[in-house]
Amino acid sequence: MISLQLVTVSYAQDSVSEIHSLQDLKSLEQEIQSVVAKVQPATVSLAANRTGAWGSGVVVSEDGLILTAAHVVQGTPEMIVIFPDGTEKEGKVLGANRTKDIAMVQITQPGSYPFAKTGNSDELKVGNFVVAMGHAGGYDALRKPPVRFGRIVSRNPNGFISSDCTLIGGDSGGPLFDMKGNVVGINSSIGYDFKANNHAGISGLLADWDRLKKGDTWGDLRANPLANPDSPVMGFSIGGELDGGIMAEAILPDGPADLAGMKPNDVIRAINGQRVKSGKALLIELNRYRPGQTIKVRVKRGNESRDLDLKLVKRGDFYTE
User: Fold this and answer.
1) Looking at 194, 227, 260, which one is the last position of a domain?
2) Based on the domain organization, do 8 and 152 belong to the same domain?
3) Least packed by Cβ within 10 Å: which of 12, 110, 251, 301?
4) Are the C-beta atoms of 305 and 298 separated by less than 8 Å?
5) What is the pLDDT of residues 5-48, one digit of tens each?
């Protein structure tokens, strides 16, 4: 439920009249529920085996074209696409404009996928109500992508929009919708208090549509990290799948894996008792935890198996550009 206090401090917009009564509030709530029912199935989680990056995206065509943020796909040619119902597909990274922090991913398997329509961010005004979505904290099979409701608080000439929708790590690349359910922005950078967040306006993306779809990558990613700074990392690079697990190719000095006693060529078999047989499975399992938590990692070293206690850290605290 949306509290009366929340909406009475917001400005009215074209889709609803000013909130003067409980009935006005109920009408707004129904409008939000209608938007969510329409577009939530198209809000996907994205994960990269190569970089360990994870974020969100939104499907905008029936054949599986996805819009996301450039910093989510940076450094990887493929992404794992996970729909809210748990369906997994492989995605090919197409183009990216790093300056605008926008990118495209195409699902490689032919099919008919749930999708949302694109809108016009140039028509948005300060005070307009919007709905933000994303797989906050990474994909979670126990819940659908959380819904955040807020309003536009500012715009800038470069096509970026700011809203007060609360976002956290994992929401990057997710969609911002207007009250008709049209995609009007892509979640870009998250504010320090999580409530003053930037979104790349959809109109700027549409202007680059042909280049992005063709696979061009250009621009300079200045305002965003290489990946979500709040995501948990283990501090090793994946060498491939081996013996029903994931081989650690290199252990980063003074990182969580190094401090836990992991060695190059160790094969990670399980996280807290949950088997991980692929890089994809490892990323999905890792996203269930938060930086600062200690996990038990079962590794195979030669003919021996051993458990290591590994304390996860924030990507932003460990990796630097």
Assistant:
1) 227
2) yes
3) 110
4) yes
5) 333 333 334 455 466 778 878 888 898 999 999 999 999 999 98
Alpha carbon 200 to chain centroid, angstroms: 14
CA-wise closest residue to 273 among 302, 222, 307 = 307
138: left (phi over 0), alpha (psi -120 to 50) or beta: left
pLDDT at 3: 33
CA dist 40 and 134 (Å) reads: 9
How large is the average pLDDT for residues 283-295?
A: 81
- Tokens describing residue 141: 């099979």
User: What share of residues in the chain are helix, strand, coil (percent, to 5)?
Assistant: 20, 35, 45
Report the share of the chain in percent with pLDDT over 70: 84
Using left for φ > 0, alpha for ψ between -120 and 50, and beta otherwise, residue 146 falls in beta
Sign of CA dihedral 240, 242, 245, 251: negative
Q: 269: domain range?
A: 232-318
Same domain flag for 84 and 222: yes
Torsion angle, CA of 124/127/131/132, rounded to 10 degrees? 90
The number of distinct structural domains making up the chain is 2
